[in-house]
Amino acid sequence: MTERIESFGDLRVYQAAFKLQQEVFKVSKAFPKEEMFSLTDQIRRSSRAIGANLAEAWQKRRYEAHFVSKLSDSDAEQAETQHWLDTASTNPHPSAVNFQNDPLSSVLRPPSSVFCPPSRHHLPLANQRPQQCFFR
User: Tens digits of per-residue pLDDT, 27-82?
Assistant: First the structure.
C-alpha cells in the first residue's frame, strides 16, 4: 500500500531539505564573524530556499509550467548551497567538510529523474486515478 501525501510536509525530499537547512544553520554557527554577511548569510538563505521552493512547487502542482519552474528554482538553490558548502570546505571552516559524505548530500545532488516531463509526476485532478508522485 502506498502512503498518501496530504501536504508538502509529507514529501521525503522536503523532509530531507528541511533537515539539511537545520544542519547548515547549526554548522554555520561555527563560521568566523567576518563571514557573517557573506558566506554565512548566503549558505543559510540558499539552503532554506530549497525546501521553500519545493513547498511552492507542491502548491502549484496542478499547473505544469509553475510546477516545473519551482522545481527548477529548488534545483538552482541546491546548486548554490553546494557551491557555498564547497567554498566553506576549502576555507578554514572544517565543519562544512562533514557535508561531503553526509546522507543529506543526496538533497544537494538529486537524481536526474527529478526533472523528467512533469506530466508524469504532478497529481491528477479530481475524479482521476492517482499517479505515483516522484517525491516519494
Answer: 899 888 888 888 999 999 999 999 999 999 999 999 999 999 999 999 999 999 99
Contacts of 129 (CB under 8 A, 6+ apart): none
In angstroms, rounded to a whole number, what is the distance separating the alpha carbons of residues 73 and 62?
17
Query: Whole-model pTM?
Result: 0.71
Q: How far is CA 94 from the centre of its chain?
A: 23
What does the H/E/C string look like for the chain? CCCCCCCHHHCHHHHHHHHHHHHHHHHHCCCCHHHHHHHHHHHHHHHHHHHHHHHHHHHCCCCHHHHHHHHHHHHHHHHHHHHHHHHHHHCCCHHHHHHHHCCCHHHHCCCHHHHCCHHHCCCCCCCCCCCCCCCC
The 10s digit of each residue's pLDDT in 76-133 is: 999 999 999 888 888 765 555 555 555 455 555 544 444 444 455 455 554 444 444 4
- Domains annotated for the chain, with CATH where assigned, are 8-120 (1.20.1440.60)
